[in-house]
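Comment thread on ticket #2218

A.B. wrote:
> Attaching the input chain for the structure job we discussed in standup.
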Amino acid sequence: MTVISGQGADRGHVVMAVPTSIERDARVRKTAISVKNLGFRVTLLWTGSGLKRRTEGEFEGVRTIGLPLLRSVAKPSRQRSGNRRRTLRQRVGLAYCSEAAVEAGAVTIAARQARIPVESAKGLRRARWLHQVRSRGFEAVPPEPDEASEDEIERPCRGRGRWNWRRELTWVGNLEVAFGPEMAKLEPDILHIHDWPLLWIAANTKRLLSNAGKRVALVYDAHEYVTGQYIPSVFFHRAAILLEKEAMEHIDAVITVSDLIAERLAEDFHLDQPPTVVLNVPALTWGQVDSPRDLRSEAGVGTDVPLVLYSGGLMQARNVGRVVEALARLPRVHLAVICVPHSGTPGALDLVEAAEELGVADRLHLLEPVPPEEIVSFIAGATMGIHPMLGGFPNHEMAMPNKIFDYFRAGLPVAVSNLPAMSRVVSEWEAGETFDPLDVASMAAAIERVLANRDALAAGLRNPELLKKYSWERQVEELGNLYDRLDGQIRLPNRPISTPIGDMP
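C.D. wrote:
> Ran it. Output below, let me know if you need it in another format.
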């Protein structure tokens, strides 16, 4: 691996792009800074719902460009009405895209069954019926490429339904209007795309530049396992899978966030090179500053009070409501929730309502997020961390959430759901306890065990091997090895660009 100071070095131009805001996205920010420190010139493209005009900025030597979405191609209302007008034949003709998608659907149905009566019985029956229809549709697709028509080889995985992701994801056109011209004008040597919505836009940009004589390497940083994600809209989910699959043939390297997801991506897409695993972990020596805020002061909790911390999103699948239920079984314990993006979301308000009904509202404390570089310092005041994410979705089963490593870095032992990836790490390093995320009693018992052994568990988190393995500095080594490989690819001679990029359609 080659590590070069960003000062004066220019190994090429890397254009990174993310379809969201970068203000609190620690992974994107750290990746951009790290690639800059490897000697590349980095430009980071981003967008946000409140962005009204093109905005340029800079952080730690990385140029940033915020791009507003003008909704010039399609509005969400058009997409929704398109779904309502769908004919019965199109609905019945829907099919799964791959064996992995069939498996993911079956696991999701089992998980929803386990959550009765939380789940709507009517909704579950509808989901079972649709799963059967999609499975039959997948089985009807000719599986062998050598028996398929030329059109089926070029556009595989369509099932019986005569539609593709472009009909569902009309908003990708809005992203392309914003990002496509900017990507091309920047003439990158490497395009590094965070998450799937910008993948096809990047593939088009790569082909455009290639036709003009410019060699470009395309990197896909897969933050999630798309096939195994929990996406309520079956149409949206299938479309996302199809977009990722269609774009994959244009991708030169894949990065992802856990070993298990890397294995599935390599299997699903028959990758020549296995994905590079770059964990979403905090740094040991850089990127961290002391927070001016104090966790316990903001929560109004004294140092002698056991304080359990959850930090992150409050979607239903994160299962934080059950932690509130567990408080009723833990009379001395308080729960602090750092609400992402803020404490006014419907999920946060649901927690308050549940706490009031259970009589534990005085022990629930909703806090606002801090900047990513302050998170480790801020959360260190808690007694322990918790991550109660629901299983049943392959993406969750294989996930290694960044908050787990934030807890580790802050010296907080943890209680986590007994999902394969998370529980394996916690058990391997004796960093805490696991529980059944569907069982409040199991959760409460795990919290009690962690609190009873808190000092011993916290001492284990100071293990130098653990700190090194789950540090951003270690991930930069993997990132550097990948970029060294791409560096050799982009340094092959380019043809002269025949047409100025700004003049291209």
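A.B. wrote:
> Thanks. Noting for the ticket: The chain has three domains: 13-72+168-281+477-490, 95-160, 295-466.
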